User: Fold these one by one.
Assistant:
Number 1:
Amino acid sequence: MNNLTLELRRYQNPVTIQKILHNAKTIAIVGLSSNVLRASYFVGFYLKRHGYHIIPVNPRESEVLGEKSYKSLREVPIPVDVVNVFRAPAALPGISMEAVRIQASSLWCQFDVVNEQGAHIANEGGLSVIMDRCIKIEHARYIGRMHWLGFNTNQITSARGGLQ
């Protein structure tokens, strides 16, 4: 096991993941595309369908999933609970600074979006950080249908509940 794997574990805590998913209402998706073939579109569609308010943040888009797209996090006019990132790892420090400025609660970095400096900036700014995890998959695991069936939760139960 390499050092990167060891370091990532602290950004993949199941309890933190569940708290974020259960408490979030508004998710700004940085890099959300209107291209239905992109992962960001599918994730945004899924989250919106499951009751989250989605805010696209992409300077190349004017509207995605029926929501106005903003050029940057600073332009978003309402409070944001989670900043979900679909960008190259090198962009993460700047995105983390913006997330801290807008007082988001959490920074969620999708698969392969790993940048220690970005994580450090967000942590120092008081944000919870999840890195190298897909928010859609984690939602399905802990809240959605995978959870109902008992997969990947370390317990099988017929009772639906909150945090374990």
Note: The mean pLDDT is 89.
Number 2:
Amino acid sequence: MDTLALERAKQRIAEAAAGRPEPAAIEAALERSRAQIEALAVTAAELEVSIPEHVSAAVRDGVRAEVLPVARHIAEIRGLLNQAIRRLERVEGDLLAERHARVDDLALLVDLVSSGWRGVDERLERLESTRRDAVEPGDIVEPAVEPLGHADVPEREQLQHAAAA
């Protein structure tokens, strides 16, 4: 072996030994690491306690901010529906009143027509009884009503002359 190679090997060993940390430095670094890990554990425990409170407060604030407008809209829709229901009830009442009025009108009209026909029947009965009293049993009775075709001719001619003039 060469002295030069031996010198180089010793130098590399010295450099490696020089680059090696001292045990006291390693112990100090470990103590700092332990202290920082303990501080991290304490911070994590604090976060475990405070995060649910912060999250629940944030959720409450978010829900409050989003739900209030929706609640207002629902209240407005409820008011509009109540108003529509009241209007429909009023229209239904008006229609019912109109129906009853039409039924009353129809009843009055039926009474008027039936009393008119009763009057016609009574008048015809009086005329027939008067005629029966005037006619003797063996007489031939001629109709009292003239045919329309013969009776209307002079009147129709008078109307045509008046219209022409």
Note: Residues 19-133 form one domain.
Number 3:
Amino acid sequence: MKKSLHIFAIVLFVVPISLTLGAQQVAAQGPAGSGAAAAAQDGSHSLNPIKWVKKDPKNSVDASGNRSDAEKKLTPSLRAQGLLGANATATEACEPFLELVECLAVMHASHNLGVDFNCLRADSTGVHTSVDISGCKVADGEKAQGLNKAIRQLKPDANAKQATKDAEQQAKDDLKAIGA
């Protein structure tokens, strides 16, 4: 009787532990069965808040068609402000930039501080175009920097933080003026 009670106690203790460990391994596998792939990829039930916000790429200024339209609308305005030369276009000047607002900020910063636009563009994007930048204090290699760092390098006596802030605000105002 004592031996059977002993075996019963061991079984009573070992079985629940083994079932618990087995259940943890199964739970880590994810959904299984018919439609499991769809359930695993379904974005409507995501706990990631970034996926809750829907982005409309059609309304973005930087969408390919919208950007070229915005650049065409901006060219006369930028020429009138003295940011672009008579023969230059916003499309050519902003080609190395990923976002149009960054290009406009660099244009305004170069104009406000009296720094060569091509030097500031090369420093902030890391892209060296066919334009001669031999007279520029270009950063190490082709590494992109922020506008703030590029201003600090090219014009150390300027308040780079305030100049960047002003240029970015002017760029946003330019985009608002054309309705972008």
Note: Helices lie at 2-27, 36-41, 64-81, 90-93, 100-113, 117-125, 147-154, 160-177.
Number 4:
Amino acid sequence: MDFKKKVILISGATGGISEEIAKLLSKEECRLALFARREEKLIEISKKLIENKAQCIYLKCDIKNKEDIKKAVAFTYEHYGRIDIAILSAGILVPNPIQRFDSSTIKETLDVNFMANIYFLEYILPIMKQQRSGTIAAVSTLPDKRGVAGWGAYGASKAALSLFMESLRAEVQQRYNIKIITIKPGSVETPMIEGKHRPGALQPKEAAKIIINGIRKGKKIIEFPLMQVLVYKISNLFPAWVYDTIPLYMQKAEGYPTVEEDYELKHDKN
């Protein structure tokens, strides 16, 4: 795929990987539309790209707010008249320790990591269907097949996204010539995992290059880094009784918060 003159929408554009994606794509003579919640950082990134002669529009977008997402897609379409590629990368990584089981944390994670992408799809798909072309690439996660202790909300949100994108892939390709790509990163040194040591983690720029190259080649699934891909593929083959023997500290990994037990009953005591 040639990115020249392509209109590329990027959500979560102030994140480590997405910022690098925007910088690299700005050299491809494409037309960028950047969206993120952190407005100051978004303006800073966008202005630097514009100073370097990139075509770039931007707008603050809180993906917890469906109306913001609707405005972001409309803003892109009204300015450029089409959307060729959407890279949906905004997300959060919040632990949900069993010691203090809190459904609000789980709901927030699902809202941001899954439902926000559904909202983007709701507004982007009609445009691409009308164009009879387009590519939608959504960022899931490498370990999207099995639950990981302490990270159930994150895993469930990303597994839901992976499955949903897969459910769309064949139909939108056959009916409307729209390509669906699921991006499955392993560990990348971004603010999301700051303080959580992950052996073999890639730098954001390296991850961005892999993603852009995968989109360019039209891959259906982009997963990396290689060693982590192999480890997860092997662990996915473990029967449940073997998988359940993996020590919790290995599953939760370094940097997982220490949490005190909460034995308070949640039901109405009256």
Note: The first helix runs from residue 16 to 25.
